[in-house]
Design goal:
Strand order of the largest sheet: 3-2-1-4-5-6-10
Helix content: 40-55%
CATH architecture: 3-Layer(aba) Sandwich
Distance between the termini: 47 Å
Order of helices and strands: EHEHEHEHHEHEEHEEHEEHHEHHH
CATH topology: Rossmann fold
Number of domains: 1
Shape: globular
Structural class: alpha/beta
CATH superfamily: NAD(P)-binding Rossmann-like Domain
Amino acid sequence: MARILNNILVTGGAGFIGCNFIHMLLKNSKDFTGKIVNLDALTYAGCKESLKSIEDEFGGSRYFFEESDVCDSEAAHRIFKKYNIDTVVHFAAESHVDRSITNPKKFMETNILGAWNLLETACDFWKDSSGRFKDGVLFHHISTDEVYGSLGETGFFTETTPYNPRSPYSASKASSDHIAMSYFHTYGLPVTLSNCSNNYGPYQFPEKLIPLMILNILEKKPLPVYGDGMNIRDWIFVKDHNEAVWEILKNGKAGEKYNIGGECEIENIRLVNILIETAAKKTGANIEEIKKTITYVKDRPGHDRRYAIDCSKLKKELNWKQKTPFEKGVEETVEWYLLNKPWINKIRERSAL
């Protein structure tokens, strides 16, 4: 029987994947009638404007915003009690690998201590007087395929692939994964976990590869590509990722982890060329002139060569599948950035990009 989710705490809901998740549940889901509480510290990548239409339509009735750090224990306890939280979807994280190389401390604090604080709060709030957890509660921890390290030319990451993180970012997420699962095994806290491949789509912060390239193309700026451009990533449209998370929330088994992938492996340089062709088609720009702006730059330290996800467990056990072909998703994404310059300007003003 599917879980009945009433009061969901979404952490990092003003960020890229989190805001898309909130849009999906409140505007497009027929099987969610409850409330969402968005806990977000509004750091450089958080943008309340991403949820303006949600606030206008559902604010005060089904949508509530709480500005707070996930490391703040007092705030977490207050929010759990105030809204009678029964489900946590923990998106909130520092997620940019380059930033983790220059400032690893912030990643350790947010990604490790923040996850631990929320797990502790859930344990405190969801236990009854006998020490048993209430029926129907769930803590879902969102993670990344980067915890697995780097693949060679063949093979895929499965749920049993040993962890081998190569950057401070992936190491911090690997740590929080282990902590989350330890709370299931040690305390019995109902926990599920998902490791996802690279997301793309609307509302993504402009420092990430796809929006950075789109905006640089539109603004006739150089297109920086690390190393030889042959690093491979598995790409998934953000809506497909969030639909997988929703299936896990409703039907996933506590104590299990699920890989979420797009089954769409693309070399970085090929991706850049696809973005050039798509943007040129929509703007009438000259493809060959844009390609001249591709600039190969020094590779970043510890740059994993290839990621590829085996998501057969999720497909088999929860009947999920991707719905968005890469070409269609890229067209939608480029179109979104063309049509949402006020959002781009706003987030750039806040983050000094």
